[in-house]
Amino acid sequence: xxxxxxxxxxxxxxxxxxxxxxxxxxxxxxxxxxxxxxxxxxxxxxxxxxxxxxxxxxxxxxxxxxxxxxxxxxxxxxxxxxxxxxxxxxxxxxxxxxxxxxxxxxxxxxxxxxxxxxxxxxxxxxxxxxxxxxxxxxxxxxxxxxxxxxxxxxxxxxxxxxxxxxxxxxxxxxxxxxxxxxxxxxxxxxxxxxxxxxxxxxxxxxxxxxxxxxxxxxxxxxxxxxxxxxxxxxxxxxxxxxxxxxxxxxxxxxxxxxxxxxxxxxxxxxxxxxxxxxxxxxxxxxxxxxxxxxxxxxxxxxxxxxxxxxxxxxxxxxxxxxxxxxxxxxxxxxxxxxxxxxxxxxxxxxxxxxxxxxxxxxxxxxxxxxxxxxxxxxxxxxxxxxxxxxxxxxxxxxxxxxxxxxxxxxxxxxxxxxxxx
Length: 421
Known about the structure:
Blueprint: E1 11-15, H1 20-30, E2 34-39, E3 54-56, E4 62-66, E5 76-80, H2 86-97, E6 101-104, H3 118-121, E7 129-134, H4 149-155, H5 180-203, E8 208-212, H6 213-219, H7 222-231, E9 248-252, E10 257-261, H8 265-274, H9 278-282, H10 289-294, H11 296-307, H12 312-319, E11 326-328, H13 332-337, H14 339-343, E12 347-353, E13 368-374, H15 398-404, H16 409-417
């Protein structure tokens, strides 16, 4: 087994903020890339302040560091740099010249004013892979608009198919419980970047990647988009039921509820046998999935009295050895306590050394606290994700990175005195 991570040969300059861009660069960092995150002096990434909730100090008291930031900034080195100043721009150009990848999520044309756009930087580094993440892309009538996840969930139609149907209790469009379009844009961006890295092996040249939240929001409509594009029928909200499968939804149980996800006729027949209702599988209304979808209401009315006769745990035990997908509907606390989640080691605990507010120095080790993040789901057996650094404090690695660029301590102090870093 190799001791090097898959992307340990790549250097990434991260000019992105909030979620989509940082999610992408954290994926690259987890796979071993050296990611340098550039933030505004004194303020930093907006998500450092998006709380509550906040990280706790060693005594259990709230700090001023929001937990949001920790979700997508592990394994990075953080520097502060004012790109509005010519000296800051020069430092970014110097770093870009030595980087493989640059990720940014400024408004269209926002970095051109500073000479930090792709056309400017490729002249000093033709191999640079430059990924721009925006709400609506580099072209089109909305290109200059700011775009946010919630806006894209609404515009893409995702909210129109999420939630209970009109006329039902709680009916109406509903956003996802996480900024899913941001996260998925980060994942798509990471895939595009790795494709560009592979293409560079052949061409020797980098390229500009144009990632738009709206594009991703439309793409991930998946089967719902395919259904509309090929039939003209507009999908509607239908709560926890599935437009193309039945029974595939939540069901009441004796002590709460469960999720039953039957995806084929064999699973349905095995469920019916286990539930003591083999005649359902033979019923002409329910013999195929298409028939079950057509006669969903009649089927569910038959099933509910039966599902309510056992507890959720009893149903899971009854069905787990029969290849019938059935599970609990956990809250997040219950999900992280699940034996499978624990066995997969999905929670990472790292020591976090807090900095004094407004200072560029770490407090002593006695002031360390712990930060928890979710492990990378990328399980490469030969070159697995690496765990090197906790989410960085603002400017934590400024001196380290600038020394690597060739500056000395006196020059760095002068830059700090002028507010450049």
